[in-house]
Amino acid sequence: MKGHDLINTFLPDELVIEIFRHMHSKSSRDACSLVCKRWLALERISRRTLRIGASGSPDSFIKQLARRFVNVKNLFVDERLSISRPVQLGRRRGDNQSTLSPVKLHYTTERGESDDSDWESNCFSDAGLIALGEGFTKLKKLSLIWCSNVTSMGLQSFAEQCRSLRSLDLQGCYVGDQGLAVVGECCRELQELNLRFCEGLTDKGLVELAISRGKSLKVLGIAACAKISDISLEAVGSHCRSLETLSLDSEFIHNKGLFAVAEGCRLLKVLKLQCINVTDEALEAIGTCCLLLELLALYSFQRFTDRLDHHRWRSLSAIGNGCKKLKNLTLSDCYFLSDKGLEAIANGSSELTHLEVNGCHNVGTLGLASVGKSCLRLTELALLYCQRIGDTALLEVGRGCKFLQALHLVDCSSIGDDAICGIANGCRNLKKLHIRRCYEIGNEGIIAIGENCKSLTDLSLRFCDRVGDDALIAIGQGCSLNHLNVSGCHQIGDAGIIAIARGCPELNYLDISVLQSLGDMALAEIGEGCPLLKDIVLSHCRQISDVGLAHLVKKCTMLETCHMVYCPGITAAGVATVVSTCANIKKVLVEKSKVSERTRRRAGSVISYICVDLSIPH
Fold first, then answer.
1. pLDDT by residue (tens digit) across 535-567?
2. Which of 387, 385, 423, 386 is nearest to 405 (CA)?
3. Any idea what DSSP says for residue 505?
C-alpha cells in the first residue's frame, strides 16, 4: 500500500540481518545502512569483518568502531592505509563538534625529533591494540600490517582479552618474545600465525609458542626474522604435528631445521621456501617424509642441483618420487636445476595442475616437454625468463594438456608462432593468455587462438612487436573478451581495436597505451560497442583527442578509472568531460597541467597526478 513501509512491518530483525550477511559488497551494505535507523542498527549488528587504515589517530577510532560493530570477528588493520573518518550528520547545534572534523592525514618523508610525538600519535599503537581487545572480544582473526608501534605490552593485553583468536598476522610489527609467549598461553584455539618481518622476535618466543600451541597450529609464516634459527624449526617439528602450511624466508635457516620439520610435520600440504643455505639433502627429506604435499614453491635457491649421488638424482627427483599428491609447483631463480629435475617431477607427480618456472636458466625444452607428456591435468602454466625453452616444448603441452586454461609467457625469446598454434589447436579450453616481450610471436599464433579458443576471456599481449590488427580482428570474431591489454604493440591501430569493440560487448578492462597509430575512431567504436567498460588506459597515445574521449565516455557510463598521461591531443576540456560525464569515476590519472581549477574543485578526490611530469611545455 502506498505510503506504508511493508518491509519493516513484516520482516523480523533476524531475516533482515540474514539478507545483509548475503551482501558481499561493502558499498551495498553501506547503502542499505542509510535507508533508516533500524537498518543502520541491524547492519552494524550483522557486520563480521572490518578493514581500516592505521594512520590518522587510529587508537581513538578503534573505540568508536567497537561501540558500533559489536559482533565483528575479523579485523584488518593496515599501517599503509589512512583512516577516512565519516562525518556524523544530523547533530544539533551545541553538540561537541570536535568529532565532526575529518581526520587530518599526515604524509611525511622525513621526520625530526621535534615531530616524533606527533607522528607516533597518528599511528596504531599499544593503546589502540588494548582498546581493540577490550572492544572486540569475539574476534577470531586479527591482521596487523606494518603496525610498527605495537609492542609486546599491547599484544599481551590483547591476547588476555581475545582468547578465542584463531588467526593472527603480525607482519612488520616489532613485537618481542614476551608478547608471543602470552599469545601462546591465552589463545588456545590459535591455528594461523604470520611472523613476517617481526624483527624483535628470537628463538625463545617461537619455541615457547610452539610448545604451548603446537597441537592447534596449522599455518605458520616466518620471513626476515634475523634471530629465528634452526632452533625454532626444531621446536616446530617436535610440537606442531598438525602443521599443514609453512612459509619460510630466511638466510639463517639450514638443513638441520628443515630436517626437523620434514620428520615431525608429516601432514604438511603447503611449503614455500626461500632459504639460500638449504641444500639438496633438505629437499630429499621433504620428498621422503611429507607425502601429502600439494603445493611447493622454491625461491632463489642457489644450492639445489640435479647432481647424481649414489646412482640416483636428488633434489626434485625426491619430490617426484615421494610427493604423488603434488598439484602446484613454483621454481623461481633456482639456477642449478635442469631438465632432469623437471622430468623427475613430471614422471612422479602426474597430478600437477599448476606449474611456474621463473628464471631457471638451465631448464629447457626437454624438461617442459616431459611435463606435456605426463602431467595431463595441467590447467595453468607460467614461463618467465626461460630462454632455453622452445616451440617443441609447448607443442607437447598442446598435445597432452587438454585442460590448460591459463598460459603466461614473459621474455621467452625462443617461443614463437608454432608454439602458440600448437596451444591453440590442442588447448581449446584456454581462458587466459598473457604474453609479454616474446618477440617471435606474431599474428599467426594469435589468429589461431582466435579461431580455436572460443572460451578465451582474458588476453594480454604487451610489447609484442609482431602482433598487429589481423590478430585482433580474429580475436574479435572468435572470442568474447572481458579483459584486453595490448600495451606497446605498435602494429595495432584502429582496425584491430574496432574489431574488438564490435566483437567483445562484455569488455570491462582495456589497456591500449603506447599505440602510436590509434585514433579517435577507435575510441568512438569502443564507446558504442563496450558499454560495460570500467577501466581504460590510454597513456602515450599521441593520435587521440578530446573528440574521441567525448564519444567514449558518452556511452561507457560505468567507467571507473581512466589513465591518459602523455596524450598531447587531450586537453583540460577532455579531462573535464570525463569527470563530469562519468558518474562512477573513481580515478583519473593525468598531468597536473591539464586539470583546470574548476575541475579540481569539482572532482579533486578522483584526480591523480603522475609523480614526475615529463610533458613538454607549450
1. 999 999 999 999 999 999 999 999 999 999 999
2. 423
3. T
Give 196-237 pLDDT, tens digit per residue.
999 999 999 999 999 999 999 999 999 989 899 999 999 999
Residues with Cβ within 8 Å of residue 4, at least 6 apart in sequence: none
Complete DSSP assignment for 358-421: ES-TT--HHHHHHHHHH-TT--EEEEES-TT--HHHHHHHHHH-TT--EEEEES-TT--HHHHH
Number of alpha carbons in the 13 Å side-chain half-sphere of residue 464: 31
- How does strand 509-511 pair with strand 483-485? parallel
210 and 186 in contact (C-beta within 8 Å)? no
Residue in this structure with the C-alpha cell 614463437, named with its chain if needed: 416
- CA neighbor of 245 nearest in space, from 284, 198, 191: 191
pLDDT digits (tens, 9 = 90+) for 307-340: 655 555 567 888 999 999 999 999 999 988 889 8
C-alpha cell recorded at residue 19? 539478507
Task: Give the global pTM.
Answer: 0.87
Residue 601's contacts (CB-CB under 8 Å, 6 or more residues apart) are none
Please report the beta strands in 111-186, taking only residues with DSSP state E, as ranges in sequence order.
Answer: 141-145, 167-169
Amino acid at site 538: L
